[in-house]
Amino acid sequence: MESTDPPVYNKRKIFEAECPAYSGTFAVDSVVPPHTDTNPTLPPRTINFTDEEFGNIGSDDGKPMVITLHGLTGGSQEAYLRHLLHALYIEGWEACVVNARGCALSKITSGNLFNARATWDLRQLVKWLRKTFPNRPLFAIGYSLGGWSMALQRSWLGLNAYSKSMARDLKGLFELFVDRHMRRSPQS
Predict the structure, then answer these.
(1) Cβ atoms within 10 Å, residue 74
(2) Mean pLDDT over the full length of the chain
(3) Is the overall model pTM greater than 0.70, yes or no?
């Protein structure tokens, strides 16, 4: 059976963490027009930016830009991300995926690994995107654990990232926690 997953093409940039407390590197895959180059050390249809390409990447355009965060073991190669990114890309959006450290065939370069509280790479990327693309409105979509990370930093980052269903889910989880752990009657 032939795959129905849309072919999304990416170029990768490895960022060095700016904050010494969160040392190491992280990979960001940007959606780009189709290309025929390959790199067997990266996910399918993904190659690295050349230094020259990345040095000239900035733009003053006002295209919407979406930052996506994958789930626990995912990355830019996941079908659920490709379906969304393909649809947005053909509508004129710019898009990138923050690959958590060690995911999507990225190298682990420090002991600072992916967890729901690991928002330092996202913070650095948003700061860089705002400087490099000053007129682009930024949006964020997170899946699973990536959604939790995004939700933790939504207000700090000032992203257009809100979901009524996510808010209901968080409220429900909080109420369940309170019911189970805080409202128990004392044991006799």
Answers:
(1) 22
(2) 81
(3) yes
